Amino acid sequence: MEAQVRNGNRKYKKTISRKKKIILGILIILLMGVVCEQAGEYSDKIKYKPVGQLINVNGHNMHIFAEGEGRATVVFASGWAVPSPYVDFYPLYNEISKRTRIAVYDRPGYGWSDVADTPRDIDTITTEIHELLEKSGEKPPYILVGHSIGSLEMLRFAQIYKNEVKGVVLIDGSNPDMYSNRVKPSTFAFVRASIFHKTIFLLNKSGISRLLFNTVYNYSSTVLSTARNNLSLAPDSFVKLDEAMFLRTCLNSNQVDEGNNKEKNALKVLSNGYIKDIPLRIITSEELNNYKESKENQLNLKKWSTDSKQIIVKGAGHAVHWSHPEVINAEILDILNNK
């Protein structure tokens, strides 16, 4: 009996010891992954230096890229969690900059901008953009181009600084009205989204995403690439830059806060009224137009200006600027040439 007990204890201790070794091994591998990722991000930082200016705004550095000359400045605002606005808007500004001035900015937590401690409410976001434009030397009048959730800050900019705005172009833009009667997500949905965001963030920071991209699952296979026509309209080097920015910035605290604040930010824009007679062009993808709710939201954006027009782009997904940039550029130039 005593021998059986001793054998049992030895087996138990061996099992515990084995589990400890496995856990220790996993921790060592994760630590090595974190160290390798930090080294990778440092290498990326050296390789992909800012292409524009880094300007101190509200206590943190914000990046802005500008080029071209003309009588107006076209300002581009990216959608949510886009790794690099500089890459994302290439199909548009590469052509528009031949005709006038363009400026692409990175919100805090995006591209080359710092992760900021300031809140991500719509008025903070918008006033930071205005300060960035002023400090970087950009001049109005501005033609504001916003994709997806970036449309909220463009509409708010037009509300606050209406005398500086020549026109607004929204690409599958978020309609502030869409949140007024919307049922709030359940606690379960919120927790599920939070787990997903943190998982992506941890995969990036532990080096697992970088390992996958370099071995079995290329960045070009991710939805961030495939949904944007595999970034085929940009130079090859832009794909690697976008990948580096994804690994560095995806779903950091600023981006998560933006996502959590989208309803509150939309209602703030809604409460401050329409943009009156400022020219407004609404670019709607066939993808959004195929769903009743989003179709109505896009159509209702026309109410936001007395000088509005909607263009439905057949065959386009949400990233219209990667499949049909010529449609958007034509509307930008129409506003530019409208005296």
Automatic annotation (TrEMBL):
Domain AB hydrolase-1: start-end pairs: 75-177
UniProt feature coiled coil, ranges: none
Descriptive protein name: Pimeloyl-ACP methyl ester carboxylesterase
Superkingdom classification of source: Bacteria
